[in-house]
Input
Amino acid sequence: MAYQKKATKGVAIVRWDEKFAAAAKAAKEKYKNVGGGVQTVKFAANRITYQGADVPDGRMNVIVLGDCFLHAYYAGNTYDPEDIQPPVCYALSEFLEDMAPHAECQEAQSSTCAECGHNQFGSAATGRGKACQNVVRIAVIAASDAEDGDTVRTAEIVQAKIPVTSVKNWAAYVKGLDGRPPWSVVTAIAALPEKNYYRLEFKLVETIDDNDLLTALEARTGEKVQEYLQQPYAPPTEKPAKVAKPVAVRSNAKFAAKPAAGRGAVKR
Output
């Protein structure tokens, strides 16, 4: 199996099955009620971009180090790609039951998200959804940056946002990892067309069983990742002057999926 290494004589064997069980239980627990100055990956139908360049084939292979819930209420603001403003009220937390307006948000709408009227189904201006967007932020590293423990320890962590229409897909994927936390596997993410929007698809590529890799990956999870994921939005800014958009389209292969070899394994 990929990422597997024989035990070295005289080196204590870490019981990863026990660590996996505890971490996977915590990951599932977060989603029991579930039916954004940082580098980010952006999604669109059949397209994934990083640093303004396309990831080949619109698919990316990553290792997800952590995630957090994000609730964002924009009031009457409409989305303008040339004048992106922060939500009026937002909440960030690793656990859904702890969601409450962030201390740095412009105007808290309630003391907790559970009590907020904007966080109730039917509160959206149209349809039966919520006026407050319930999404998930994830922190990932490219699978290609996980060659060994040293590369993992220095790999760039990048943030991505799972839209409300794909949160259930992510929750189902996490629950179905068969006793594994997301940081112990390689995950393929694709942005697929869905009517006038897109949906994210998550698939298990392979498990990671190398002791050095797992030790390095586990060390990069936890509080540090949550600090990264829960960074507050920047304050509102004045609308910038319009500038001509670049014409050239570049390609960014950092997160590109590599050809599969064998039963769902990525050939290294």
